[in-house]
Design brief:
65 residues; alpha+beta; Ribosomal Protein L30, Chain: A; three-stranded antiparallel sheet; 3 strands
């Protein structure tokens, strides 16, 4: 199979606030994004599912596009 040279749209997400005192559902959303420690950065595929997780924890993360 031939690979397509086009790069898929990605979004960089950084955890900017700690998880103390945060709802457990929001902790799980941060974990699903792959963020563990403060200032962790992940580059994720830009999809509606990822955008939904980001919107859930908008006050904990920063999107760096």
């Amino acid at each position: 199979m031939a690979k397509n040279n086009e790069t898929a749209a990605t979004v960089r997400v950084r955890l900017v606030k700690g998880l103390r005192g945060v709802q457990s559902r929001h902790r799980l959303s941060v974990k699903a994004l792959g963020l563990n420690k403060l200032n962790d950065v992940r580059e994720l595929k830009d999809s509606p599912q990822v955008r939904g997780l980001i919107n859930t924890v908008y006050y904990l993360v920063r999107v760096e596009e």
